[in-house]
């Protein structure tokens, strides 16, 4: 399916449906968005075929070229001091970037630069698109962040994320007690005593993290662990909370009891979104994106006696 993003909307070349179908049903199925949203677009005249808005009951039985209105014009950006970001994956509807440390994903009410603004700058250079983050990373975390370039793709990827079909794999260096591999299943809720902090709580939301130990070392009177983690759920601070609850918080994560280390930049924590896997809603193809380790990890691992060789062989 050919999709082209323009400043005024999205041009879509739909293939022939598997059987004659009402246009609302076929648009919903092909674009992976709810029929209710398609009908909303049709009611407001935002969907056009050869210049006319079809009825949601109109039967389609052949390839169709569709225009959908959306304001995707370049956006004026207030911040002039945006850091460069590395693009890891790019197609007409999706973008994955490598988030650096100490950068907010979205605005927090201050004038601090954000990853959203950095991505919008890239889309401005492309000529069209909106920077819609599909998921977030904490300020001190690095690695893969997925963006949709228009509202239809955002809805499609939100549904994929909610259904657990976006696979997010992280790497961390932790310090503390020995980490037991397996599945950490412990609900997470707000910490009522510390603003912005979360904790394992019987009344919290279900949270499951898959844990794999890659290397361990005893150095300087402490135990250090290189660990791979996969999110089954996506609670706020989930990995940080779960590792802290195991007695081995992420290095640099002082909010959860982590040990600072001079190899890390101020505010950086040793948590990295290393890999992102999903099935592309439009192409129907599997996509895998990897983010290289931050430079600080080489020195950090060497200082605490951990080997990163297992990651280099992957």
Automatic annotation (TrEMBL):
Which Pfam family, just one, is annotated for this protein? PseudoU_synth_2
Q: Which GO terms describe its biological process?
A: enzyme-directed rRNA pseudouridine synthesis
InterPro entries linked = PsdUridine_synth_cat_dom_sf, PsdUridine_synth_RsuA/RluA, RluA_PseudoU_synthase
Q: Name one GO molecular function term.
A: catalytic activity, acting on RNA
> Coiled-coil stretches, from where to where?
none
Annotated SUPFAM superfamilies: Pseudouridine synthase
Q: Which domain of life is it from?
A: Bacteria
Q: What is the catalytic activity of this protein? A: a uridine in RNA = a pseudouridine in RNA
Q: Where is the Pseudouridine synthase RsuA/RluA-like domain?
A: 94-245
Q: Return the similarity comment.
A: Belongs to the pseudouridine synthase RluA family.
Q: Which PANTHER family match?
A: MITOCHONDRIAL RNA PSEUDOURIDINE SYNTHASE (PTHR21600), RNA PSEUDOURIDYLATE SYNTHASE DOMAIN-CONTAINING PROTEIN 1 (PTHR21600:SF87)
Indicate what this protein is called per its UniProt record: RNA pseudouridylate synthase
Q: Name its species.
A: Alicyclobacillus acidocaldarius subsp. acidocaldarius (strain ATCC 27009 / DSM 446 / BCRC 14685 / JCM 5260 / KCTC 1825 / NBRC 15652 / NCIMB 11725 / NRRL B-14509 / 104-IA) (Bacillus acidocaldarius)
Q: What is the lineage of its organism?
A: Bacteria, Bacillati, Bacillota, Bacilli, Bacillales
């Amino acid at each position: 399916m050919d999709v082209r993003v323009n400043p005024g909307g999205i041009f879509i070349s739909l293939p022939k449906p598997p059987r004659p179908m009402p246009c609302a049903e076929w648009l919903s199925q092909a674009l992976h968005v709810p029929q209710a949203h398609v009908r909303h677009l049709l009611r407001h005249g935002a969907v056009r075929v050869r210049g006319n808005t079809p009825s949601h009951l109109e039967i389609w039985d052949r390839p169709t070229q569709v225009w959908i209105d959306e304001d995707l014009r370049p956006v004026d950006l207030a911040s002039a001091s945006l850091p460069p970001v590395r693009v890891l994956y790019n197609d007409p509807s999706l973008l994955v970037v490598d988030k650096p440390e100490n950068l907010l994903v979205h605005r927090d009410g201050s004038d601090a630069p954000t990853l959203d603004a950095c991505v919008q700058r890239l889309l401005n250079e492309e000529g069209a698109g909106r920077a819609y983050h599909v998921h977030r990373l904490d300020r001190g975390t690095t690695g893969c962040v997925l963006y949709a370039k228009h509202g239809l793709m955002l809805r499609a990827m939100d549904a994929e994320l909610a259904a657990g079909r976006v696979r997010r794999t992280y790497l961390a260096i932790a310090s503390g007690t020995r980490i037991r591999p397996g599945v950490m299943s412990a609900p997470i809720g707000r910490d009522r005593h510390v603003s912005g902090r979360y904790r394992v709580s019987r009344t919290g939301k279900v949270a499951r993290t898959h844990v794999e130990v890659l290397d361990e070392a005893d150095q300087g009177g402490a135990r250090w662990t290189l660990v791979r983690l996969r999110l089954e759920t996506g609670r706020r601070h989930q990995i940080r909370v779960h590792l802290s609850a195991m007695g081995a918080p992420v290095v640099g994560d002082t909010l959860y009891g982590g040990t600072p280390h001079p190899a890390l930049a101020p505010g950086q924590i040793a948590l990295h979104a290393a890999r992102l896997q999903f099935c592309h809603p439009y192409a129907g193809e599997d996509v895998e994106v990897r983010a290289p380790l931050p430079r600080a990890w080489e020195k950090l691992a060497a200082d605490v006696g951990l080997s990163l060789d297992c990651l280099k062989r992957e």
